[in-house]
């Protein structure tokens, strides 16, 4: 009603009401020029609107407020508020997923959207994604978060959806010569401490200071530091397995039906997995920027940043497997005569470190000639030590494999797409003495990445205030050196006698026995990691080391990627019209070192293999803006961009796995992957209402070739280690024939509503429609599938994104409520079997925040995140009727102080 009333007021009346409200609101103060100084969320909203209006490309943004805070407590949460931006969690469902990590722009997977700081790419602490994880970057660094949606020739073209650019603070941007602010928040996550260890307090604290100094105050310095401590606990279930294979299909007579295709028969749970996570994340970061502006023509800056993230996670697991026939299957129930149950833990601390140093220079030579230069180096490391301990009800000695027994067979019911099992012998399942050692594993994963970046741009008459014809000419080089190494040790009892001598779970368990979701009556048996390893060390002679040459050699790779680019861009600006058009040539050279797996019987030596490849593209772009008057403008653009493969996808590494049912699974890289290419079409209407007011409508379409996705398909009979396997599944990244996405973005911002002057709103809605084509295997075609199958969306592309934020200011109090909803998104696609496609279900989050000014410069801030405790849910199957993954997320309560003294 308020939105309708506000929109129905004529613009002149609305703006007059705004001006009157600005003059009478108690928190507004006039500066020496008579301008209105706005504070709080209203200040961040106005700054973001100003950035959109002054940008030379199509972008949306979220900005810090006058106290140096984002409207949310971290970068990822804040980026959700940007029109057309959604956020995703981790890519590994066997790890904690209670926190968003990366952003998608207009439905394009984070793999193909660049993350930069002041336009500079960062080294990646990950072999799956390029660039930094947003959740690692400190909020204290940020002046503004930009989602750049239409890139010009000056930008890196690895931006199919766009580019997330973090604009860092500048000492010359502050109102006054000095700036100092401290924000300190204590929090409570209502899931933390619910298992073995007490969670303790959540902490977020940061401090930022800047000043100008020297003769004529030509020098500036900005320094910031931030610390976070984030504990959590989560009880999750994964009945569908990571690739959806935990659900299978059986005929009424109990025989497993064949994949691929939709399959026939009734759905049956064959791999039922419960997880309990204890997590503690700590983050520490620091930034320092030195600036020199000796005159109006010259700017130099030196920036250094350090970003540290430690994620210490303990994952407890209860896994129940089935084998053989499933007699008397119905659509919602059935039973297995034999099964197996495992109890275990994985301790998997991960440490990521990223360093960045860059030097930027700008000089105006006069007569419209301006030179911009950037030189940067960033380095990232990833260190993981995964310790895995597993006990099994039916372990086989001498190998990490299990048998089955009647005691652990089960009957099942399917309730709301979830399996609920009744084990044949619940007493045995709950007894520590029923389990013996299956394996002890010690796995180290190391990644080291370095990115060097240099860019030079020479502009003539191309500034925002210049008129007439102008020109930008530039070149850039990005060199990325990334190496991944895995060291894998696995120990199993050598004989059945050794298994018996080593003992059961008795004596190495915590006293807690929390309930599982999927096996009621058979609880978690929580392994004490320290006690278990002490027992192992004391009885080391009972174990043998298994052959892990495949894991130690096949996964290792080294990528050296060099991208050289040159561009030219013409500019024409008039008072009410401007156009920029250019072309960029982007040339990529790649050297990949991997180890070739031996496939001949008896062969053991892995041979190093070096592969050289490369590709080059001409990438044109054009963008025009027309001022329509009364604050209205129209923008239209067309551009061509690319999406380079992940570093891990480049590596043509191959691993083989043989299942207990005789199935051979082949996981391999694809040396023939091409980067995907997109033609992008944009049209945007913007109406700036004054102050922070904005109405914006944008339509876009992307026509994509060589879409990259990871597909599992049935392969031909394969000879491996002297045995020919008839049932083979191959998982590999592939190029689809074609993909497309189109969408509509609508946003409305008004920081003062005429009827209620203290009330402001920010609302946006994005509607997305995408799909890609993928080839079906020969076996799939033979089963009746078409040769090409069209997906229901791009990977990680929701069908809609909605945001609504309302805030109210009265005297020293500011209240804010924010609602974010992300629609259904395809998470992964099985090439041959649509029932194994995985879908992230719609998720909504409701957050509230309150600020109270206690005295000038001191605010009390409270916030509740995820007020309704919305979980993450992944589904699969016909009409998405089956749960693949369920991950609950609790509420987090924050209370803190913000201090900004007047200097």
Automatic annotation (TrEMBL):
Signal peptide (residue range): 1-21
Membrane as UniProt keyword: yes
Keywords: Cell outer membrane, Membrane, Receptor, Signal, TonB box, Transmembrane, Transmembrane beta strand, Transport
Span of domain TonB-dependent receptor plug: 53-162
Cellular compartments annotated: Cell outer membrane
InterPro entries named among the record's database cross-references: Beta-barrel_TonB (IPR000531), Beta-barrel_TonB_sf (IPR036942), Plug_dom (IPR012910), Plug_dom_sf (IPR037066), TonB-dep_rcpt-like (IPR039426), TonB_rcpt_bac (IPR010104)
Topological category with respect to the lipid bilayer: Multi-pass membrane protein
Gene3D superfamilies, alphabetized: TonB-dependent receptor, beta-barrel domain (2.40.170.20), TonB-dependent receptor, plug domain (2.170.130.10)
Domain TonB-dependent receptor-like beta-barrel: from-to ranges: 400-867
Keyword Signal on entry: yes
PROSITE patterns: TONB_DEPENDENT_REC_3
Cross-referenced Pfam families: Plug (PF07715), TonB_dep_Rec_b-barrel (PF00593)
Principal localisation: membrane
UniProt xrefs under CDD domains: ligand_gated_channel
Family under the similarity heading: Belongs to the TonB-dependent receptor family.
PANTHER family according to UniProt: PLUG DOMAIN-CONTAINING PROTEIN (PTHR40980), TONB-DEPENDENT RECEPTOR-LIKE BETA-BARREL DOMAIN-CONTAINING PROTEIN (PTHR40980:SF4)
Protein name, per record: TonB-dependent receptor
Source organism of the structure: Sphingomonas insulae
């Amino acid at each position: 009603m308020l939105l309708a009333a506000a929109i129905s007021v004529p613009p002149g009346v609305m703006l007059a009401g705004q001006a009157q409200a600005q003059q009478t609101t108690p928190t507004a103060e006039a500066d020496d020029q008579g301008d209105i100084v706005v504070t709080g969320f209203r200040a961040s909203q106005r700054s973001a609107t100003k950035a959109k209006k002054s940008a030379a490309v199509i972008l949306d943004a979220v900005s810090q407020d006058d106290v140096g805070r984002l409207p949310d407590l971290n970068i990822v949460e804040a980026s959700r508020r940007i029109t057309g931006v959604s956020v995703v969690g981790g890519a590994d469902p066997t790890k904690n997923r209670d926190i968003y990590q990366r952003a998608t722009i207009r439905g394009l997977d984070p793999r193909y959207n660049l993350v930069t700081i002041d336009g500079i790419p960062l080294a990646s602490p990950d072999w799956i994604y390029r660039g930094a994880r947003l959740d690692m970057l400190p909020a204290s660094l940020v002046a503004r978060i930009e989602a750049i949606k239409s890139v010009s020739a000056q930008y890196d073209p690895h931006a199919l959806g766009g580019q997330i650019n973090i604009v860092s603070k500048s000492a010359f941007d502050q109102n006054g010569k000095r700036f100092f602010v401290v924000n300190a928040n204590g929090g409570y996550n209502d899931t933390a401490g619910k298992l073995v260890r007490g969670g303790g307090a959540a902490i977020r604290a940061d401090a930022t200071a800047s000043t100008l100094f020297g003769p004529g105050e030509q020098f500036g310095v900005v320094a910031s530091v931030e610390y976070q401590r984030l504990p959590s606990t989560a009880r999750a279930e994964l009945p569908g397995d990571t690739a959806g294979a935990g659900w299978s299909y059986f005929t009424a007579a109990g025989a497993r039906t064949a994949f691929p295709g939709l399959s026939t028969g009734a759905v049956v749970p064959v791999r039922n997995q419960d997880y309990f996570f204890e997590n503690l994340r700590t983050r520490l970061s620091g930034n320092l920027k030195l600036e020199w502006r000796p005159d109006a023509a010259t700017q130099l800056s030196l920036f250094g940043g350090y970003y540290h993230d430690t994620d210490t996670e303990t994952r407890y697991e209860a896994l129940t497997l089935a084998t053989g026939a499933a007699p008397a299957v119905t659509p919602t129930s059935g039973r297995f005569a034999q099964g197996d149950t495992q109890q275990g833990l994985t301790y998997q601390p991960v440490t990521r470190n990223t360093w960045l140093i860059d030097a930027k220079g700008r000089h105006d030579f006069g007569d419209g000639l301006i030179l911009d230069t950037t030189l940067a180096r960033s380095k990232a490391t990833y260190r993981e030590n995964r310790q895995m301990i597993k006990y099994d009800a039916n372990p086989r000695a001498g190998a990490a494999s299990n048998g089955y027994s009647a005691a652990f067979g089960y009957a099942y019911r399917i309730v709301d797409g979830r399996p609920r099992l009744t084990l044949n012998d619940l007493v045995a399942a709950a007894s520590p003495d029923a389990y013996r050692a299956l394996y002890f594993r010690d796995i180290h994963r190391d990644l080291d990445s370095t990115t060097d970046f240099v860019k030079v741009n020479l502009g003539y008459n191309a500034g925002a205030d210049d008129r007439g014809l102008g020109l930008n000419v530039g070149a850039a080089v990005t060199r990325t050196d990334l190496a991944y190494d895995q060291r894998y040790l696995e120990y199993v009892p050598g004989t059945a006698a050794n298994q018996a001598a080593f003992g059961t779970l008795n004596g190495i368990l915590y006293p807690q026995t929390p309930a599982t979701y999927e096996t009621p009556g058979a609880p978690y048996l929580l392994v004490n990691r320290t006690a278990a390893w002490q027992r192992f060390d004391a009885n080391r002679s009972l174990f043998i080391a298994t052959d892990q040459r495949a894991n130690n050699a096949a996964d290792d790779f080294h990528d050296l990627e060099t991208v050289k680019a040159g561009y030219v861009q013409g500019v024409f600006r008039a008072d009410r019209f401007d156009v920029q058009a250019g072309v960029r040539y982007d040339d990529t050279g790649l050297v990949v070192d991997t180890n070739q797996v031996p496939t001949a019987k008896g062969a053991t030596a892995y041979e190093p293999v070096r592969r050289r490849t490369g590709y080059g593209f001409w990438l044109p772009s054009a963008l025009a803006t027309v001022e329509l008057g009364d604050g209205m403008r129209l923008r239209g653009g067309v551009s061509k961009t690319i999406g380079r493969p992940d570093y891990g996808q480049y590596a043509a590494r191959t691993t083989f796995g043989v299942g207990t049912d005789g199935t051979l699974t082949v996981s391999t890289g694809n040396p023939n992957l091409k980067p995907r290419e997109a033609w992008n079409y944009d049209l945007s209407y913007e109406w700036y209402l004054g102050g922070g007011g904005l109405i914006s409508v944008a339509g876009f379409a992307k026509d994509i070739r060589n879409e990259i996705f990871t597909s599992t398909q049935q392969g031909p009979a394969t000879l491996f280690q002297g045995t020919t396997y008839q049932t083979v599944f191959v998982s590999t990244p592939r190029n689809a024939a074609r993909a497309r996405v189109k969408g509509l973005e609508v946003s409305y911002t008004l920081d003062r509503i005429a009827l209620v002057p203290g009330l402001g709103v920010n609302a946006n809605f994005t509607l997305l429609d995408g799909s890609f084509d993928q080839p079906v295997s020969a076996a799939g075609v033979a089963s009746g599938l078409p040769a090409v199958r069209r997906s229901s969306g791009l990977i990680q592309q929701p069908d809609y994104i909605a945001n609504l934020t309302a805030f109210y200011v009265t005297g020293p109090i500011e209240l804010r409520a924010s609602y974010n909803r992300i629609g259904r998104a395809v998470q992964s696609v099985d090439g041959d079997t649509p029932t194994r496609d995985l879908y992230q279900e719609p998720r909504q989050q409701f957050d509230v925040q309150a600020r109270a000014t206690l005295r000038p410069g001191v605010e009390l801030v409270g916030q509740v995140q995820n007020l309704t405790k919305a979980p993450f849910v992944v589904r699969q199957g016909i009409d998405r009727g089956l749960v693949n993954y369920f991950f609950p997320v609790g509420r987090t309560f924050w209370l803190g102080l913000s201090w900004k003294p007047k200097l």
